[in-house]
Amino acid sequence: MLRVLFPFAFRNSWARQEVGADADGKISYALPQHDDNAPDLYIPTMSLLTYVLLCALCYGTAGKFDPDVLPDVTTKCLGFQVLEVIAIRIGFYLMEAQVPILDLFCYTGYKYLGLVINMCSGITVGHLLGYGHRAYYFTYLWTATAVSYFILKVMANCIPRITSAVGPKRQFMVLGFAASQFATCWFVSQTKFLE
Q1: What is the DSSP letter of 19?
Q2: Stated pTM of the model
Q3: CA 149, 106, 163 angle in degrees (round to 5)?
């Protein structure tokens, strides 16, 4: 989680650990227990569930809770994530680079950790001082920038240095993937009932 929230502090390698290759030349990587850079779905899944519950808490404290809030927020988050993964997958296809789709869901799901931090700060400061929106957007600037930088570093190591000569440039695609995190964090924000 520290690598996602404070990626600027990590100067060591962002590349995944290779454990070997099979006869076809397909590289296998170390599991998340042995490699800090390996993607896993645990943190994104738990962060998404926590974010949905915090949104429900925010609606409830404003007196606007409806049970439909839970599936609405979940559907919005997952819908944007699926669209984002499809767009990234198309970018990889154009560059003729192979990255497993579950890895993309893992990497793009780390944004929910930042959204949880944003909601916690917005709810807490909103109840204590009445500046929930300001606290949310102040932490949003940090977490969205951190997640975007995290994706920038991770995707730069996922995409091979040599890609298709006719496809889009690698550097532009990596920057586009990072910028998409900033945008999707904004679109899935639920701030209308923060005080």
Answers
A1: E
A2: 0.87
A3: 65
